[in-house]
Every structure is written in structure tokens, then in C-alpha cells.
Task: structure prediction
Amino acid sequence: MIPLLVAIPLLFAFIISLLPALGKQKLSKYLFLIGAFSPWLFISSIVQKLPLDEVVGGWKRISGIEVMVDSYSLPFLAAELLLFTFVAVYVYGDYYPKKSENKVYVILLLLHSGLLGAFISRDLFNYYIYMEIASVSSFALVAISREKGARKAAFRYALFSLLASYIFILAIGIIYLKTGYLNLLLIKENLVFSKEVNVALALAFSSLILKSGIFPLHFWLPDAHSKADAPISALLSGLVVKAPVYGMILLILTFPISTLMQNILIATAFLSIFFGIAMALIQKNSERLLAYHTVSQMGYVLLGIGLLNPLAAAYYAMAHSLFKGGLFLSVGTIAEHYGTRDLEKLSYRHSKFLVIAITLLSLAIGGVSPFIGAFGKFMLVKKIDGLLKYAFYAGGIGTLASFIKLNYYLLKRGEKIPFPLKKEMVSLSVGLLTLISGIYLYPHLQLVRDLSFIFIGFALFYVFKKLGFFEFHPSPPFPDTISGLGREINVYMLFLGAFLLFLLFNSL
Amino acid sequence: MISAELTGIIIMLIGMYGLMTKENLIKLVLSVNVVSIGLVLFFIGTAYIEGGDVPILPRSTVVDPLPATLMLTTLVVDVAITSLALALVLKIRREEE
Result:
């Protein structure tokens, strides 16, 4: 039953790719919708029987590939299905020109099945394969954008993601060499802890941190996520960076993590949170602002991993998928209809649906109750104490200040360009979903705390504005040429090498 | 004597050196391919058993067949991404002109 979740979108991707040869191109959008929505048919019966595990093809566990849906993978699956449904509705119809429509649908379905496959796997190699299907489709999806520089962003993304994958497989190889299994349950049963396993964990964590775009290995993310088209950005920021997080959850569920490694992960998480916010505050490009918030929000998810609280990481990842996906869809709609991504020129004032949607989503990302972000933060904060708790709340206030800035710019009177109702409705439904799911999961209202946070956020925004912080535009460190791109990759490779060495030395 | 695993890791490091020093985009793609070759060698090395034979029944000492199958999958991914990356290089060059 569980493998069908993945198999049917994959089958439809294959069928759609055959359609042009048969001269039936017109059918592709209908088949796309069937393929995209098909997992909903199975998910309801799976949810009733949790935790449900199954070895594909009915083999014995030792020789087969195990898949499982349990409380750790359920938030990921829920986020995937919900956000992909919204994006499918957004893209369906005439978003892409007739000429490239067919190919885009094929790649989107591949992305869909790759992510679903990664989120159900309990076998290291199978997990890698599905994550790779999702990443390869996302390189292609970034590259089809009309935005200038999208090809360069896709190239950088592809190169680093591929290298990270190889580092991850090397880690899998070491684990296989030491334990003789790829199935995580069997690895856990047969694990004898040794230095080699520690090295493998360091390799695996650094590769997954790169793939999920966490500071200091975030360099590919802002470009890739901001140059892609709006619905693609929503998928990349909402879902594709969550697949490596699921891998990290599998690792901490299987292997004992040393305190030193835990502290490194927590420190990285906090650095990522604050770096992301600081960079987002100075951005003038609407999509780049959101992309830097992904760096910051993935820090929160890594915090859950570092605190060995996988459930919190999973639920925060789900919360982030919904609100960030919604933000990219709504802000991206505005940016696309204005034909620019410059915050100064955009305005949502004349569209009441988008005003409501973006306000709801901004509150959700700021962690205001009763939105879903508050639930994610409540799960995370349970295990934090002392000074770190203040740092944690400071991150929330910084996020609020940054989104107050976004809404401040969008609220200005601008040219009145009408938006299509379907796009407005999709954005509004995601916004309402963050509210409804938040009320359902965590029905607590912390009015005093949240209002004071919003107030401090406003004060912070005002101070930054007076200080001229928003006018500060550092020039890009590398020239926008081919050799500039090459040099940029060299420098970032050195970063990656340094980070890798740092983790390796600390794991020995 | 140096083992195949160690050689594999050294080849991976050579590939990473290429990624750190070369500016040419095609050379960068090739460097990633060098990393992948090193990885394949590492895996094949892990499967090797002294005096092991092809894993077809009915032989007694055989090499571990699983790493070879895993590497087959990795190579397919590698081919796909290499072609995609090279296509992107072409597009980047065309945009630049």
C-alpha cells in the first residue's frame, strides 16, 4: 500500500513524457492533475493504521527495501501532499506556455514522487535515490525560469548538491562497511560504535546541511530559490530542502550522537537563524528576502535535530513548508504580475485577498499564536533553557521585524495591476490553512507575549529604518561573468572543505 | 600495498581539489565526475574479499555483490546530472554572448 504513494505519480510522469510522441499533448494537464492528486487516495487508509511498515515486494527485511509511515514521517508527508496540491492547482492550466508545458508537468511529477519516496524510506540508499530524484528535478525546474541568471543559479545548485550527494554516499559506504546493512532498523540492532561510524556521521551531516541550505553552507540557496518561478520556489523552499532534514532525523533516530556533535549542530542552527534574518533585512528583492528566511528557518529545524528532538524538527519543517510555500506563492504572484522583484515597486494594496493572505502568512512565520508557527516553536522550545531561550525568542522577533518590512513596502500605493482570482485564492487558502492547522494542533493563545513580540518587532523595524539599515546594499562579491561563477564555486568549495574538516576533526 | 578504498578516497580528494582551483565550468563538471569515480572505486573496494570470485552460484567465496549494484544506480544518477550540467554550461555561454 505505501509504495503506491510513490508509484502512481512516477507512472503518470512516464505516461505524460510519452504523450508528445503519440500526438496527444493536450491530455498532459489532465494526467498531471490525476498523478499529483493520486496519493490522497491512499493516505487516508494509511493514516488509520500508524505506524505502518512494509517491505516492498514482500521480501524479508534483510534482503528487501523497507518503507514506513510513522509519527516522524507523517508531518513531512502531510506538508508534501498539501503544498504540492496547492502548487499543482496554481500551475495547472496556462501558467507555462504550451510548448514547454508537457516537460514541466513530467518534472513536477518526478519531484512529487521523489519527495514522497524520500519521506517514506527507511533504507539509507533508497532514501538517497529518492532525494536525488527530487534534487535533479529541481535543478531542471530552476533552469527553466525566465529570470536572468537562473541558469547560473541552477548550475551552482547542481554542482554543490551533486558533490554533497557523493559525500553522503561515502558516509553510507562507511556505515555499510562497518555494519553490513543499509536498512536502518538492522543497522540499529547490529551497531557497534566506532570511530569510523563517527566519521560517517560527520560526513553525512555536513552533506545534509549543505543540501538543506543551512549557514555556512547556504551559498547556493538564495540564488536558486529566488531566480526560480513562484510555484517552483514554493516547492524548493517548502519541500525540497526538507528531504535532507528527514535524512538527519533518520540518522539521529538510528545512531547515538555525541554531545560535542550535538553542540556543533545547535551552534550552527543559531548562527543560521541570525545570519538568515540579518541578510533578509537588507534585501531589496522580494524573493531573495524570502530565500534568506529559508536559511534562517532551516536553522530552527536543525535546532530540533541538535536537541535530539526529531518530532519538533518534523513539525517545524511541516509548519515552514506551509507558510514559506504560501509566501512564495503570494509574493511571487505579485512580483510576476508587476514584472519586477524590486520591493520598492510592488504593492498588494488593491487586492484584499492577497493582503489577508500575506498578513496571515507573515504572522505564521513569526511564530504568533494560534498559527502553526507557534506550534512548531512550542515543540522546539520545550528542551531549550537558559540563555539560549532568549536567543530563540530574539530570532522570532527578528523574523517579525523583517516581515513587517515586507508588508510595509507592499502596503504602499502602487500601480493597480489586477491579479488572477485563482492565484489569489490559492495564496489565501494556504494562509487560512496555516491558521486552521495551528488552531487544530495547538489551541493556545498567548496574547500578551505575542503582542509584545510584535511591538518589539515594530520598534526594531523603526530603528533599522531610521539607521538607514535598509538602504545598505553590499555589492555582490563576485562579478556576474562565467569566470566569476567559476571563482565563486572555487571559494565556496573551500568553505565546504573547511566545514567538512571541522566536523571530521571534532568527530574523531 | 595500498587498498582500493584508500585509493578511492584519494581520487575523491583530487576531484575536490579540482573544484577548489579550476575556474572553467566544464573542468568543474569533470572534477565532480572525478569525485564520483573515486566513490565508485571506494565502494567496489569495500566489496572485495581476498580470492573472491564473481557472485554467481554455485561458488563458495564470492565478492559482495551489493556495492556493485548500488554503484550502478549512482552511475546512472551521475550520467543524468552530468548531461544536465553540461547543457546548463551551454546555455550560460549562449546567454553571455
Summary: The beta strands of chain A are 52-55, 66-69. Residues 78 and 106 of chain A are 22 Å apart (CA to CA).
